[in-house]
Write a structure and sequence with these properties.
The chain is an alpha+beta fold and about 130 residues long. The protein has one domain: Nuclear Transport Factor 2, Chain: A, CATH 3.10.450. Helix content is about 25%, strand content about 50%. The protein is built from three helices and six strands; from the N terminus they run H-H-E-E-H-E-E-E-E. Strands 2-1-6-5-4-3 form a six-stranded mixed β-sheet, with helices on one face. The longest helix is centred in the N-terminal third of the chain and has 15 residues.
Length: about 130
């Protein structure tokens, strides 16, 4: 069962993410945050530490004119919490994969959060 404190930390992070509040996201992170993104079963991005994460978050925020993650389910497993999400975003730029400015992206995914000393120490996103 997920603790109320961990649930609050995760929800605050998602709220900051949805509103492009990079400072709000970073303040919830452990200094040694490990972030990984997996797409179609392959890890395509990894950052270690707040500086690398902040740089990626800044770059990523410029790709979308809007973005919204909705948590649909929580599952605690040991020292991690998995959330299932519905994700929707509108592109602010053309992408090399053929998606264009204004295109809408919708997908379902999951994120795994590790929380250490009251801060997020691990985020793994799967889509």
């Amino acid at each position: 069962m997920i603790s109320e404190k961990n649930k609050e930390i995760i929800e605050n992070y998602i709220e900051a993410y949805n509103s492009f509040d990079l400072e709000g996201m970073v303040k919830l992170l452990h200094k040694d945050i490990l972030f990984r993104n997996f797409s179609n079963g392959t890890m395509d991005t990894e950052t270690r530490g707040i500086q690398e994460f902040g740089e990626l978050a800044e770059k990523s925020s410029k790709i979308f004119s809007s973005r919204h993650q909705t948590i649909t389910q929580y599952h605690a497993e040991g020292d991690t919490t998995e959330i299932l999400i519905d994700y929707e975003a509108i592109l602010a730029v053309d992408l090399p994969n053929g998606l264009k400015l204004g295109d809408k992206i919708q997908l379902k995914g999951k994120s795994v959060f590790g929380i250490h000393e009251g801060q997020i120490s691990l985020i793994e996103d799967y889509s």
